[in-house]
UniProtKB/TrEMBL annotation:
<protein>
    <recommendedName>
        <fullName>GDP-fucose protein O-fucosyltransferase 2</fullName>
        <ecNumber>2.4.1.221</ecNumber>
    </recommendedName>
</protein>
<keyword id="KW-0294">Fucose metabolism</keyword>
<keyword id="KW-1015">Disulfide bond</keyword>
<comment type="pathway">
    <text>Protein modification; protein glycosylation.</text>
</comment>
<keyword id="KW-0119">Carbohydrate metabolism</keyword>
<keyword id="KW-0808">Transferase</keyword>
<dbReference type="InterPro" id="IPR045130">
    <property type="entry name" value="OFUT2-like"/>
</dbReference>
<keyword id="KW-0256">Endoplasmic reticulum</keyword>
<keyword id="KW-0732">Signal</keyword>
<keyword id="KW-0325">Glycoprotein</keyword>
<comment type="similarity">
    <text>Belongs to the glycosyltransferase 68 family.</text>
</comment>
<dbReference type="InterPro" id="IPR019378">
    <property type="entry name" value="GDP-Fuc_O-FucTrfase"/>
</dbReference>
<keyword id="KW-0333">Golgi apparatus</keyword>
<dbReference type="GO" id="GO:0005794">
    <property type="term" value="C:Golgi apparatus"/>
</dbReference>
<dbReference type="GO" id="GO:0006004">
    <property type="term" value="P:fucose metabolic process"/>
</dbReference>
<keyword id="KW-0328">Glycosyltransferase</keyword>
<dbReference type="GO" id="GO:0005783">
    <property type="term" value="C:endoplasmic reticulum"/>
</dbReference>
Amino acid sequence: HTSNNNNNNTTDGVRFSSNHCQRHLFWEQLPGEATATCPADILPLRGAVYLLYDVNISEGFNLRRDVYIRMAVFVRRLQRRNKRFRNVRLVLPPWPRLYHWHSHGLAQTNLLWRHFFDVESLRRFAPVLDYDEFLAEYRMFGHPAPPFVHVSQVFRLTHYEIMLEQGIFRDKYERVTTPPLPDACNEKSLSGGALLQQPLLRHGRYHCVRFQGSAGLLERLLREAIREDTAGTEDAHDMRVYAVISAETVLHDNWGDEQFWLARRSMRFAPQLSQVAADFRLASLGTTDSTAGVQRPAMWELERHKRDARGGDYLCAHLRRGDFVKSRESTTPTLKAAAQQMKQLLRAFNMTTVFVASDATPYELLELKELFYRFRFVHFTPESKWQRNQLKDGGVAIVDQLICSYAKHFVGTYESTFTYRIYEEREILGFNKASTFNTFCKALGGNCARNAVWPIVWPEDADEDDERFY
Ligand SMILES: C[C@@H]1O[C@H](OP(=O)(O)OP(=O)(O)OC[C@H]2O[C@@H](n3cnc4c(=O)[nH]c(N)nc43)[C@H](O)[C@@H]2O)[C@@H](O)[C@H](O)[C@@H]1O
């Protein structure tokens, strides 16, 4: 683990610590001496634990956002409750090219989170690092031999074959040690996420872990790993790196509670994406935050409970097509049936403009547009090749979500996480529930399945959340 560098090596402009900072010497020195011989920026990182994670390769963007919340809530709590994890960091997995990102000719593999989200805002909820920030921070420790990152243990999560024990769902996990390993656990398999393919990562022990339960259970798993990696008091506070892959296996500690919503509110989109959406709302829908009565404070911490948002004078419909047309045929409307429902809503609310967010093909969009000859049909497409290159497919989808979040009325697709994220955004913005929690039916009229309604929860006592246990 220790570096034998006698020099202050520099690679890519990042300074490596010298042997004065080798771990055994470094942590045992008196604070004064350590300060004198070690870069000041390492001192606050004493005992850092970096938790890398990734999500099953086939999961879409919006489920990944939900997995992030599970992990962020867990890590925030861990940091506050437990001394050994005072310097825990959640490392945000680079976005692989997702299965739904169809556009060719765009550089859309290994995207950083700041491309889509305001990472500073995330950080005010939980200690997170974008992947390049992690690499830079890790290098400050000067070991092992740079530029590689040594992940001491990897946990590939997989479900139990039988979930219930005598009818009861119990939180539990176990490392699978006797062959045959479940197929998903193959060390070479990418299915749990492509994280281990990152060129600079090298990993030590790889475990297949059957896991059932909420994120809080990961604390035990991490403590166990730290115990195994610690020889004695001398390395008890060493920096550690662990990775959890297929992290979607982990459930929320408490879905939809205060912590969930704090994390959710901190997930603000990157300012450049919000700007594109605001410009489009002004140019094509003639609405601004103030005319729509939807003003969001600069920081999510300053948001307060309200239900008076009016929204821009347009209906927004999220109409999921693509794989839903076949795989969810019984609940996904045809274009014609969707148009009928949208027109009915336009008439009911005395509106003339519909904004459609969809993963439909250009041909389907043309077909749909033709069904709206008495109304204004608006759809967002990047205004230039340059803008498409900047936004990429993931950014275009976020702009669509933002535009829908500011509409007077919204209708979404049954069981689409894309729709659910818009519901949440509108809850944060302060719309009334009736304007938000609406679902397309397979056909106009008659009974049909509706999405669940999960209203926002605001903290009752903001101070309580800051309680620290160490
Ligand atoms: C049943 C599951 O549903 C899951 O989809 P679902 O929850 O809708 O939502 P997502 O998991 O986000 O995946 C759908 C992806 O399709 C694109 N997409 C969908 N709707 C729109 C839209 O209105 N505008 C734009 N620009 N793009 C859209 C976008 O890339 C989005 O992340 C799938 O990820 C799973 O593979 C699976 O099929």
